Amino acid sequence: MGVLAGTTPVFAGAFLLKILATSITLETGGSGGIVTPIFFVGATSGAALAPLFGMPTTFLGAVGLVAMLAAAANTPIAAAVMAMELLPGPEGVYATLAALTAFLMVGHRSVYASQKIGLSKSAGLDVELGGAIGDVSRASVRIRKGSLTERVHRFGRASRTDDDNEPGSSTPPAGSMPPDR
What tens digit of pLDDT does each residue of 134-157 get? Predict the structure, then answer.
C-alpha cells in the first residue's frame, strides 16, 4: 500500500521481477495466489510509468492496479468499483475508464481459464458464448463478414502478397493459391 499512498519509492523494474517470480513459483508447483501479484504488478507498473507521463505516482499506481485487475482477471465491474473506492470523484472515473479499456483490449483471455464467456468483446469477431475462456483457440474465433476486422485482415493479406510477389520472390502469385475459407 506504500505505492498507493506515495510513501514508498518504486524500482522501475519491480513489476517485471514480480511477474518473473510469480511465473516461476506457479510453474514449479509452488503455492501462491494470483490476485495479490495482479495488484502488485498493476500498481508498480503504473507508478513506474508515472514520471514518463508527468503524472503523480499515486494516481497512476491506482489506475494501473484497477486496469491490471480488469484485464488479467476479466472482471471490469469489480475493477470499476475498486477504482471508485480508491480514488476520489473524477479521478475514480478516469481509473474506471482505464479498467474498461484494459478489459476490452485483452480480448478473451483471463488468468481464470474456467471463466465463462458472457459477451463478445469485438464487433468484428464471432466467439462462442457460454464456453470457458480456456477453450478459446485461434481456430474457434471467426471474423465477421463486412466488419472492419475483415477489411483490415484483407488489407494485411494484400500487403503481404504484394511484398511476397516482388521480383525474386519464391512465393507463387495470389491467384494460384487456394482461397481462405
Answer: 888 878 888 888 888 888 888 877
> What is the C-alpha end-to-end distance of the chain, expressed in Å?
52
* Distance, CA of 64 to CA of 156 (rounded, Å): 32
pLDDT tens track for 50-74: 999 999 988 999 999 999 999 999 9
Predicted confidence at residue 172, as pLDDT, reads 47
DSSP assignment of the chain, as one string? Answer: -HHHHT-S---TTHHHHHHHHHHHHHHTT----SHHHHHHHHHHHHHHHHHHHT--HHHHHHHHHHHHHHHHH--HHHHHHHHHHHS-HHHHHHHHHHHHHHHHHT-S--S-TTPBP-S-S-TTEE--TTSBGGG--GGG-EEPTTSHHHHHHHHHHHHHHHHHTSTT--SPPGGGSPPP-
